[in-house]
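On clarity, I found the account of how folds are encoded harder to follow than it need be. An entry of this sort, consisting of the sequence and the corresponding backbone structure tokens, reads as follows:
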Amino acid sequence: MTGTLFEAKDYKAYLAKRLAPTGEGRGLRTRLAKALGCQPAHISQVLAKGASAHFSLEYAVVIDEFLRHSPEESQFFLLMVHRDRAGTKKLFAYYESQMQQIRENRTEVRRRISVKEAVPAEYHDTYYSSWIYAAVHVMLSIPRLQSVKALSEHLHLPADYLGRLLSFLEAAGLARATGGRWEITQKRIHLGPDSPLIARHHTNWRLRGIQSCERAAKEDLHYSAVFTLSEEEVVQVREIFLKSLAEAERVLIQSKEETTFGICMDFFRV
């Protein structure tokens, strides 16, 4: 969706941006007023900066449908309306806690990308012991790399070592041998943020990233920086990065398998 629902401080600020009279919001207030059965001026009065008036809950449901929110967005939007209309601090805190739970759920990458966990846990230790397991795993989706010889030449690794690695991937259900070639299966493997292996996994690929820095290839991209920002905007920046991952995932799903790239993303308090 366009707009910043999950980062908005309140529903009025969110709607003011979505229904802005210029850009993507041009004409939306008039169309929404028709859906609500009210005058466009009423919408402008409620959304005016400092206005004390609120949309009714009945109006909120219509607005939610009009903006075509996803189920998760609908839940969050209506909770936000309830929260902002709350008459006591206790009621405000009640709805805010439910909204915060949704925000926290969204910070888990697993929930933002299409992960089908199907690999038994006993294979995780070996798979995440080195970056090479994940690299070979995904490289099997590239037709020109679906043989031990091709992988050996591409990665500059011994063929017998890669043969044992492929046998492991086959046992884990992540690869299969078909007609003398190796193919990737539909199974995927993903670590949650609470996994004891997550630190090793991140370290493996960051060490590989350091090797890429030393290689200094023009096609590679590396960016490191430290900056200051407000506590409120920490959530917004984090959401931008997570949204980028989800958008990249949609592109990757449709992309033709021709080459292999790695990505490491870090956003942390110093």
In short: The first helix runs from residue 11 to 18. The radius of gyration is 24 Å. The CA atoms of residues 83 and 93 lie 8 Å apart.
